[in-house]
Amino acid sequence: MTANDLLPLTEEYGCPLYVYDVATIERQYQRLTTAFSKVEHLRINYAMKALSNLSILKVLLKMGAQLDTVSIQEVLLGIHAGCPPEKIIFTPNGVSFEEIEEVAKMGVQINIDNLSVLEHFGTKYPTIPVCIRINPHVMAGGNQNISVGHIDSKFGISIYQIPHILRIVENTKMKINGIHMHTGSDILDIEVFLYASEILFDAAKNFTDLEFLDFGSGFKVPYKKGDIETNIEELGRKLTKRFLAFEKEYGRPLTLAFEPGKFLVSEAGYFLAKVNVVKQTTSTVFAGIDSGFNHLIRPMYYGSQHTIENLSNPKGKERFYTVVGYICETDTFANNRRIAEITEGDILCFKNAGAYCFSMASNYNSRYKPAEVLWKDRKSYLIGKRETFEDLIKNQIVVDV
């Protein structure tokens, strides 16, 4: 999408605004399926936590994606969007056993990452097949907060505890139909991913009735020109070769599954905000926008570097700006960033805003969440209304005491 596409949307729908380009989502989905085209049984489980708007889910379901969920609410959203329960995998962490039970009764694939939960579930529901999430003890990911496969992670059952898993399976006679891992997000080195995959293959040998191997995801996308990204095509060639060899060794057809979220929707997203003030201090020029970390928290939480462009003056002379929000504490999107000259009223565009942006938005400072728009075939569709004051108070109960 270009400035000529995006600017009119701010006039029609206002600012701040999230925009999602369907063509980019389709391109990323095709890249992934093409990279693994030699795998007969490939399953792409879209990680809903990245962006769970119902219209986005419908777009991905039409392409053939299934869903990866981490809460019962995501499961319900997925079903509401038209996904059959059997095409949803539920991989929670630290939720109540009652929540797992309720999801299992819907017919959703359960993925368990805790020995005590595994034993409890197997004892109570031995006929319901489950997947096991292992922790390969491999450090991968671009930030400590998104590296989930290392030895100190709360996620997964340690590979060193496989004897415990086998004892539970033997005692309960439960069926294990899948093995799963997820090492972390923003994977730079595919060799690390392949190394962890070997650990998953070794773990899989302990189970005789597997139907699928789930390798998680964490594929990195470029955040700026020249940025490093996961070489999905090279990974496809190397992992396909190894998977097909393991499939023969295992002696039965298996499904290869992934759970991409960011890879599919990150580059499709644009966040548009208006410049309220330009403020020069003794050392810094601030561009203050009509948003904050209540709408886009990734730069503050993860240190992410979203490319920022001035749509109102794209060819202007570049100057250095620190882009900040209107929240009442440290609220910095970019420090000392080169951006085409900014004046008050200009529209700034934050790229790579499709994943973990709106989905992590809040009402902090009692601000409204922005609208969401889908862009397909040069037409725009409102898929999420801007909140109003009534939305802020609709669930509150006023008690005069």
UniProtKB/TrEMBL annotation:
It catalyses: meso-2,6-diaminopimelate + H(+) = L-lysine + CO2. GO terms for biological process: lysine biosynthetic process via diaminopimelate. Residues 23-266 form the Orn/DAP/Arg decarboxylase 2 N-terminal domain. Pfam families: Orn_Arg_deC_N, Orn_DAP_Arg_deC. The active site is at residue 328. Homodimer. Specifically catalyzes the decarboxylation of meso-diaminopimelate (meso-DAP) to L-lysine. It comes from the Bacteria. Its EC number is 4.1.1.20. Pyridoxal 5'-phosphate binds at residues 218, 356. This is Diaminopimelate decarboxylase. InterPro entries: Ala_racemase/Decarboxylase_C, DAP_deCOOHase_LysA, De-COase2_C, De-COase2_N, De-COase2_pyr-phos_BS, Orn/DAP/Arg_de-COase, PLP-binding_barrel. Substrate binds at residues 298, 302, 329, 356. The keyword Cell membrane does not apply. GO terms for molecular function: diaminopimelate decarboxylase activity; pyridoxal phosphate binding. Belongs to the Orn/Lys/Arg decarboxylase class-II family. LysA subfamily. Residues 18-354 form the Orn/DAP/Arg decarboxylase 2 C-terminal domain. Pathway: Amino-acid biosynthesis; L-lysine biosynthesis via DAP pathway; L-lysine from DL-2,6-diaminopimelate: step 1/1. It comes from Flavobacterium aciduliphilum. The modification N6-(pyridoxal phosphate)lysine is found at residue 49. PROSITE patterns: ODR_DC_2_1 (PS00878). Keywords: Amino-acid biosynthesis, Decarboxylase, Lyase, Lysine biosynthesis, Pyridoxal phosphate. Its cofactor is pyridoxal 5'-phosphate.
